[in-house]
Hints:
The complex is a heterodimer.
Chain A: H1 6-32, H2 41-67, H3 71-101, H4 112-131
Helix pairs in contact in A: 1-2, 3-4
Chain B: E1 2-3, H1 5-11, H2 16-23, H3 27-34, H4 42-52, E2 60-61
Antiparallel strand pairs in B: 1-2
Helix pairs in contact in B: 2-3
Amino acid sequence: MAQRHPAYRRYRRRAIASAASIVASVGLATWQIPDHxxxxxxxxxxxxxxxxxxxxxxxxxxxxxIEIDDEYMRMLQVRAILVATGLTLGVTSTxxxxxxxxTAPRLPVFFVFPIWCLGMLLGSLxxxxxxxxxxxxx
Amino acid sequence: MxxxxxxxxxxxxxxxxxxxxxxxxxxQSVNAIETGKYDPSLPLAFRIADLFGLAxxxxxxxx
Lengths: 138, 63
């Protein structure tokens, strides 16, 4: 039922729109903007498009939590979000400390959202291993 | 928390999917409750009790 639930279908449509926005902005930036360009209007507009995609994704996740009327599936989703948030904060805080006190290469903050998405996949795996159900995933 | 959901369902010859549809939840939810991996909220416990025509404490048992 969960995979066919109207709330899930709405979430999927919104997530696809979000992913399209992010992929389009990254693709355009890679194709049109040389590395190390100044922060002029064009690159900033593309960055805003990418940021909007992330905001849409988070909004879609929030709407899914509100609209899903199955409390067990909602719990699986919340658990995955907690794992993703923990992974993201843990990785970025740890690497940030390494950056602060050493000459290690900088991790572009662009990668925060991809790390969070990896965390959602990890959260689904944790759900599968501990409860037998993976939930929705990223 | 232990429960008698599997027995009550079997007495009525309902599959997990049948029970899930009657309760308006996923089959995964029914399975998780039956196996004790998930304790339902009070509103869902009341819906389960109403469906079987029993009191909550006749379905859900203290550990």
